[in-house]
Model the fold of this input.
Amino acid sequence: MRVPVLKDTGVWWPLSFPPQDYYGKELQKSEDLKTNACITSARPLPKAVRDALKRVHEEVVARYYGCGLVIPECLESCRILDLGSGSGRDCYLLSQLVGEQGHVTGIDMTEGQVEVAKKHIAYHMDKFGYQKTNVEFLQGYMEKLGDAGLADESYDIVISNCVINLSPDKRAVLREAYRVLKPGGEMYFSDIYASQHLSETIRKHRVLWGECLAGALCWRDLYSIAAEVGFSPPCLVTSSPITIGDRELEGIVGDCRFVSATFRLFKIPGSSWAGPGQVIYNGGIVGHERELVFDANFTFKEGEVVDVDAEMAAILRSSRFSEKFLIRAGGANTAAQQGCCCTGVKEKICDPFQLLERLVAPGPACCPGGTGGPPGCC
Done:
């Protein structure tokens, strides 16, 4: 039997307990969580981000339940949309990084969380020294962004932090994100992924839903949904293990494994596809002046020639990163090798579980912040 829609939005929820009850009533602080799914750290934070986090109000931080920290690079003056913004932690971080000329919109379905976020707008604008407000918070559903008044091609970046797993219609979420992104725009998001398709017992478990596990996609499905919507193939950024500190929940989950993984998707215009190329990072991105770890497969060092495939060349050519790179046409593996296995194009790693295994494996890392080549390539 299908349950009623979430209020009057037309979005069906698969169970009789909507997630806003879990996040708005049962959870009062992050310590109430029963797994680490919503508190994992995705990657080391640049100093600018660490400093920005210190300026966020303590209530906003305490009421935040995201997984990792979804803060991409090269943000000055960007327009950013945060899907499932919760109490607003990431929005207030991004508010500082886009600057007063940028703008951040947060949208969340939970009234209590939106109220917490809105309550501290004036505090943060004063703290940041802004003369005008560059953040707004809306209550609404990420499957139906048009209902909240969000127009086509109106954002440079869409982010999401441990929220898409809660959606009963993940295709609709990605479809709406694609719609509101400008050409060359990016969806940069962290979420929970499963090693296999979930059993009905897991999918209907109330606590596992609230803990972001029961709604997790099998990671392979993300690639097919992204292609269906129109995005470029997902770029895997990082992967962190999920631990369950509850014996009863461990028994229900069985041999299914979960990871928190960060991916980036790009809305690439057709005109940007021009085959593989060679790129040189010019530096200059705040916090990444000498080296940009773009994802698990590509690390760009300032001034170094790097072979990239057609997909990465198109991403760099069409996105906000274009001014930070010198991009020229060229066949793969024609650049001079400079001692690091990251320089040439290698087989890409797409599986977040495989990446996790490499990250925890003993021995020297293949590349700083990345895993561009096969084991032992260095």
